[in-house]
Amino acid sequence: MVDLKFNENNGCETLALLHWEQLHSVQLPQEIKRFYLATNGFQLTWKFRLADNSYPIGNMHINSLTQLCPVTEPWNSDQPVDLETNKLFTLDSNFSQGSTVLLVTRVESVSCSVHYLSGKGHLFKLADNLQIYLRLMMIYLGLPDWPLLHLKIEPSYWVKVSR
Predict the structure, then answer these.
(1) 8 A C-beta contact, residue 43 and residue 56
(2) Are 24 and 70 in contact (CB under 8 A)?
């Protein structure tokens, strides 16, 4: 392993969180607020060296609060999703065939889950909350397209060759 880089941002201000919630007309769950108050996103990358060549192999990334943008393209899910009480926000778009998104649900209380949004607009549940998602990311070591491996979806050619 070579070229290990960790880009961590200081936590954002409470006022920035409140502004973001007002801007997007949504209240974030406490778990998400605590995460962004502790660190305003991060990126951990590393490469593998083989015969004097370096190959990017690991990428663990969570968008900063300002990059946590609403998903505007159409999407569908196997479970019925009420668009009035549910909103999708891009958590990480560094995958070749899609992105991970935060589904914020407001029914009786505010909750969130993490999903994989394929390039074809299909939504697949990855984790019940951000903490579980972060654990999965670590288990799969941020390998390229790791959510596809976890969901047992056909990975990209790159992932198949590197396994």
Answers:
(1) no
(2) yes
Q: What distance in Å separates the CA atoms of residue 37 and residue 81, rounded to the nearest whole number?
A: 29
CA–CA dist 116, 67 (Å, integer) = 17
List, for residues 13-50, the tens digit of each pLDDT value: 999 999 999 999 999 999 999 999 999 999 988 888 88
Confidence of residue 52 (pLDDT cuts 50, 70, 90): confident
> Are 35 and 130 a contacting pair, CB within 8 Å?
yes
- List phi, psi (to 5°) of 52: 60, 15
**Tokens of residue 141, six digits:** 């070591």
CB within 8 Å of 75: residues ≥ 6 apart? 88, 117, 121, 122, 123
Architecture of domain 2-162: 3-Layer(aba) Sandwich (3.40)
